[in-house]
Q: What sequence folds into this?
């Protein structure tokens, strides 16, 4: 068996959704493994039913069904199993392995709740987990709320047992570190910021082509909103502020599936292209666009808007991608988003001042091209400091260091940079 | 002003949409007139692939499984609903599901064929474009 502390190339079981799964974590994993594969021996484990359809991105990284884990473990034991845990049913397949893998376990908590992960196994399992963590009265209340629309995940984080099963925990923000630490105070936690893909400043060449293909005006200043549209993304607030701000020459481009969790007012906007055109708003509500057209749409905009409330502490892959492209972002002043630097993001509160603050942010970026350019440079600088390569190095450091140490929070990225 | 090119990273050299987009960007920076068209081509093809994949995933219809969120009595309620549906509609629904699934599979298969043909034709067009460029260079000499 390999020893992670001594081995230069640890053998890692990487449990994560993988493209073409339509998931931010799947793209996150692909970007990270692209760099990690040089530093470690990685085997990716995906949901059995999806294994035949996954994209084999790198020849030396086999993509295997989760059910093959035990055989692989017996063939050659893993040093570490890394579990990418998210608040989605797509992560449900890894729950049992998380509690039973016969090697060191690293849990990467992408969200501050695992409610939908357990619901993805079965409603019975969800209720059982709530009972185990919060007691049977909480489970009874949760059972009754299951029949009502909307998500109850904000009330039941269900982090304690999963965090307790890990020898090491990785999160992307201090905010989420605090939430996980509250659930499992004795587990070591490392804060590894999200990686960014860095793009060349091509003077707007790619942006012009992207706008031509999509059919967006070349001379406009375009704000982009990206991702599944749910109530928590507050896109209707963005539209309200954009319409009230009445900024001639500015467009709002909304890309993402309008889900059943989106508020009715937003669905009305999405279903009325004439009204949208009158206010220079464009919806692109394709259900599952290919990543290439998704990235091209991001290149087409000048700045992003990514709001969130309530939040379970999740990081935004969209914001990281936009910053890497040199697009400053307007974000909610809450959770992980609040930790982004002020020189490349504008923070807006989630209270009753939200619309006014949004309007001011939209107006300042539209009317102050120098500020936009300055923030764009700062966004690129941020991305240069948070590359996927740096994230992979930080992962490797954590994997090598993994041990049942006393609870503490370290910023391994900073440690590596300092060295 | 555009910045100078940085060294390619591991992701640049790995196949995938990011690498595709980077190559297009590099060609745009180099003044390659065909890069814009190739970008559009790649986007259309990748959207086609994504749609074909989704059709394949959704092609198999399944019978509805009745459930109830009521504790204890839930299973009884679901069993009662299943029994009523079994008497009233199961055979009709199964026949319709079979017909629709057969149609969906045929559609998914046709899309796969169309996708393969598109890939082949695009590769052929690329070869021919390269050949035309070579001939133009030779003619200029």
A:
């Amino acid at each position: 068996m390999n020893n992670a502390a001594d081995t230069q190339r640890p053998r890692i079981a990487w449990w994560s959704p993988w493209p073409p799964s339509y998931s931010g974590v799947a793209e996150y994993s692909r970007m990270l493994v692209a760099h990690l594969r040089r530093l470690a021996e990685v085997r990716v484990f995906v949901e059995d039913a999806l294994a035949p359809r996954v994209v084999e991105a790198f020849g030396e990284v086999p993509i295997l069904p989760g059910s093959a884990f035990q055989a692989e473990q017996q063939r050659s034991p893993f040093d570490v199993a890394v579990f990418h845990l998210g608040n989605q049913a797509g992560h449900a397949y890894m729950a049992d392995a998380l509690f039973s893998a016969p090697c060191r376990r690293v849990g990467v908590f992408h969200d501050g709740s695992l409610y939908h992960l357990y619901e993805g196994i079965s409603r019975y399992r969800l209720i059982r987990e709530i009972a185990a963590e919060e007691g049977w009265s909480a489970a009874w209340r949760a059972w009754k709320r299951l029949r009502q629309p909307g998500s109850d995940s904000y009330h039941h984080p269900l982090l304690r047992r999963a965090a307790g099963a890990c020898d090491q925990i990785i999160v992307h923000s201090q905010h989420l570190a605090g939430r996980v630490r509250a659930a499992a105070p004795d587990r070591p936690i490392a804060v590894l910021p999200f990686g960014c893909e860095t793009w060349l400043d091509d003077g707007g060449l790619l942006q012009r082509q992207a706008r031509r293909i999509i059919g967006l005006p070349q001379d406009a200043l375009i704000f982009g909103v990206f991702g599944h549209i749910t109530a928590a993304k507050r896109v209707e607030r963005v539209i309200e502020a954009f319409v009230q701000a009445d900024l001639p020459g500015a467009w709002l481009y909304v890309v993402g599936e309008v889900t059943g969790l989106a508020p009715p007012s937003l669905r009305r906007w999405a279903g009325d292209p004439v009204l949208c055109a009158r206010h220079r708003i464009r919806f692109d509500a394709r259900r599952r666009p290919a990543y290439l057209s998704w990235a091209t749409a991001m290149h087409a905009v000048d700045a992003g808007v990514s709001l969130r409330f309530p939040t379970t502490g999740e990081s935004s892959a969209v914001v990281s991608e936009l910053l890497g492209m040199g697009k400053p972002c307007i974000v909610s002043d809450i959770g992980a988003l609040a930790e982004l630097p002020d020189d490349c993001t504008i923070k807006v509160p989630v209270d009753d001042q939200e619309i006014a603050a949004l309007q001011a942010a939209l107006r300042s970026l539209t009317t102050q091209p120098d500020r936009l350019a300055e923030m764009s440079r700062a966004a690129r600088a941020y991305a240069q400091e948070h590359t996927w390569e740096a994230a992979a190095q930080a992962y490797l450091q954590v994997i090598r260091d993994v041990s049942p140490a006393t609870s503490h929070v370290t910023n391994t990225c900073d440690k590596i940079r300092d060295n | 002003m555009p910045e100078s090119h940085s060294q390619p990273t591991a992701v640049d050299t790995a196949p995938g949409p990011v690498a595709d987009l980077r190559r297009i960007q590099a060609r745009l920076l180099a003044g390659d007139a065909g890069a814009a068209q190739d970008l559009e081509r790649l986007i259309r093809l990748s959207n086609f692939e994504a749609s074909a994949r989704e059709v394949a995933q959704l092609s198999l219809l399944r019978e509805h499984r009745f459930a109830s969120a009521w504790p204890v009595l839930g299973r009884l309620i679901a069993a009662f609903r299943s029994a009523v549906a079994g008497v009233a509609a199961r055979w009709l629904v199964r026949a319709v599901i079979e017909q629709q699934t057969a149609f969906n599979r045929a559609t998914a298969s046709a899309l796969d064929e169309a996708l393969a043909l598109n890939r082949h034709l695009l590769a052929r067009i690329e070869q021919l474009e390269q050949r035309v460029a070579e001939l133009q260079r030779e003619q200029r000499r």
Observations:
- The radius of gyration of chain A is 22 Å.
- The interface with chain B takes residues 20, 30-31, 34-35, 37-38, 53, 55, 57-58, 123, 140, 143, 146-147, 197-203, 205-206, 209-210, 212-213, 286-293, 295-296, 299, 387-389 of chain A (CB under 8 Å).
- Residues 205-385 of chain A form a domain with the Rossmann fold fold (CATH 3.40.50.2000).
- The mean pLDDT of chain A is 89.
